[in-house]
Amino acid sequence: MIGNDGDFWVFGYGSIMWRPGFDFEERVPARLIGLHRSLCVYSHVHRGTPEQPGLVLGLDRGGACRGIAFRVAGSRREATVAYLREREQATAVYLEVERRVTLARPGDPVVQALTYIVDRGHPQYAGRLSLEKQLHIVRQGHGRSGANPDYVRNTVRAMEDQGFRDADLHWLATHL
Fold first, then answer.
1. How many structural domains compose the chain?
2. Which of 35, 66, 76, 101 is at a distance of 20 to 30 A from 159, taking alpha carbons?
């Protein structure tokens, strides 16, 4: 995917769904099997600081995740990947990987997509926190990209726009 000159796909499951930040040819609802969306990353840059971290999403082991696949023109590959690395790898808490995603279109085609999964060995990996603990951290988080509660609300809104829900994120959004 990264090594050729043709169009490529990027899978977004959090803020990339509602603020991709790169040019794309099309956006398609998609599903990734084997990883699930989880508020499992302490944010020290975008939604918090090292002294007062926020929480952001990561793809963690098991389950499935609905999100958005973006088809990007091959001519924009270098700029898009550089942008995503700067944005997603500010503290190297994610692993840049390719994963198979199923596009929600006739025939359910499967494509390889660039995405970012949490590095479980990184110190910012929060693991599975109780909803009450998540709520406490999200309420006080604020970083370079803004307030942590806005991140959660915007992600919930993007999921609703695609016609699906995440029980934990929806609970958090209603309690913020």
1. 1
2. 76
